[in-house]
Amino acid sequence: MAAMTRSRRDPDRYRKGPMRWLVLALLVFTAALVLVPFALMLLNAFKSPADYSGNGPLSWPDSFQLDGLATYWRQVRFEQKLLNSIVISGSVAVLGVVLSLLNAYALGVGRVRGRVWIVGLFLLANMVPQEALVYPLYFLAKETGLYNSRLSVIIIFTVIQSAFGTYLLASVLGTFPKALLEAAAIDGASRWTTLWRVVVPTLRPTLSVLLIFFFIWTWNEFFIPLVMLIDNSTQTVPLALASLQGDRLMDATTTNAGALISLLPTVIFFLLFQRTLTRGVTAGAVK
After folding, report:
1. Is 218 within 8 Å of 88 (Cβ atoms)?
2. Using one digit for the tens of pLDDT, what is the confidence trace for 86-117?
3. What is the 3-state secondary structure (H, E, C) of 192-218?
4. How many CB atoms lie within 10 A of CB 183?
5. Are 254 and 71 in contact, with CB atoms under 8 Å apart?
């Protein structure tokens, strides 16, 4: 019976109608549009300045040069910027997920009075533009002696990212199966034990997705780090790339090489955790 059902479904599944080809053509066109900037970056990252000036950005390189990569690495001290970005983004990802989980556990499972209003406030916090926050944050950092330190940016983005994480996880935990919580209570588990032995294993795919998003979002942040990190030894990768832009002069080959080398860590991170991200999104969809 099952074989007959599969044999009936397969022809419909692989039927090649005109709409199928139209969708495929749109997907190929969209993929090409996405890849064009990366292709241009790759093309110009390995050119010499004379080759770029003489032949333009669309020409094939006369010879593959690594001078742009070496100049960018040496000029901005990329190893220091890379370490700063990894420390800040990794710390924010871990602390943001933990803080979001604790807040959401209290709101979703603990049933705090006024839960709906509190979750609404977390939603509003996500909508506040960073321009409105930057001066109060600058003033507080100055007063507490944290200005121009990585810790200040870690604290700021942990709070910002956890506002979104709390809103998301509180909604998920609001529909958490009560039978699991009641079974844990009957077994004598405390709230802390219930959190780590029951809730966290159930939410692991969602927490993994949040961890990945928090890391990538924090890695790409520019405005607040630009204000809070003024010293060369505390700046991050996006700030290092922006430092190549002068008022009247821009080295196009070094800028493209810098963009390429700055992009690689996030691409590697995404490829390493792609399967985790897919599993987390799929688990959320199934749930």
Report:
1. yes
2. 999 999 999 999 999 998 888 877 667 777 78
3. HHHHHHHHHHHHHHHHHHHHHHHHHHH
4. 13
5. yes
